[in-house]
Amino acid sequence: MIEDLFRRPYHEYLNDIIKNMVDGVISENEVLVREIKEWLESDTRKSMLAGEAYYRNKTDIREKKRDVDWKSNIKLEHEFAKKLVDQKIGYLLTKEPTIATESKQYRELINDVFNRKLLKTR
After folding, report:
1. pTM of the predicted model over 0.70
2. What is the DSSP letter of 97?
3. Mean pLDDT by 10-residue block, N- to C-terminus, for the chain (122 residues)?
4. What is the pLDDT of residue 67?
5. What whole-number distance in Å separates Cα of residue 18 and Cα of residue 28?
6. Contacts of 21 (CB under 8 A, 6+ apart)
7. Left (φ > 0), alpha (ψ -120 to 50) or beta: where does 88 sit?
8. Where are the alpha helices (DSSP H) in 56-120?
9. What does the alpha-carbon distance between residue 29 and residue 49 come to, in Å, rounded to a whole number?
């Protein structure tokens, strides 16, 4: 997001928290409460909840109302988001990883770890 360009780096934020904890200005519980509160109010969480709602087919069209009496107010909901997400998950989790290296020994070691057993879900 564009606002991330103007936000101070996260490591500076963490350094300030640690400094305040060492100086006794703030306790661990206060840090946790503040972090949880910020997370619950964050745009990232709101986007995640909206995405989950669309995945569960609870779209914004349910909130749309027509003020005209002579037109139908029937809404059609489609599971496009769920279909797209499921397709992407299926592709990402079933495709064997491709790892390019010039070292034959390293390639064999990597292929031993990233084999079909790793991709098996059950």
Report:
1. no
2. P
3. 74 89 90 92 93 87 75 75 88 76 88 75 55
4. 76
5. 10
6. 27, 28, 31
7. alpha
8. 80-94, 104-113, 116-119
9. 26
Residue 27: closest CA among 37, 36, 17? 17
77: Cβ contacts below 8 Å, ≥ 6 apart:
57, 59, 61, 62
Q: What is the pLDDT of residue 122?
A: 54
Q: By C-alpha distance, which of 35, 42, 33 is closest to 3?
A: 42
Nearest to 120 by CA among 93, 98, 102: 93
Helix 43-55 crosses helix 80-94 at what angle (to 10 degrees)?
Answer: 100
Q: What is the rounded CA–CA span in Å between residue 122 and residue 119?
A: 9
Contacting residues for 65 by C-beta, under 8 A, at least 6 apart: 73
Q: What 3-state class would DSSP assign to 74?
A: coil
Those residues whose C-beta lies under 8 Å from the C-beta of residue 59, and which sit 6 or more positions away, are 53, 77
pLDDT at position 41 is 94
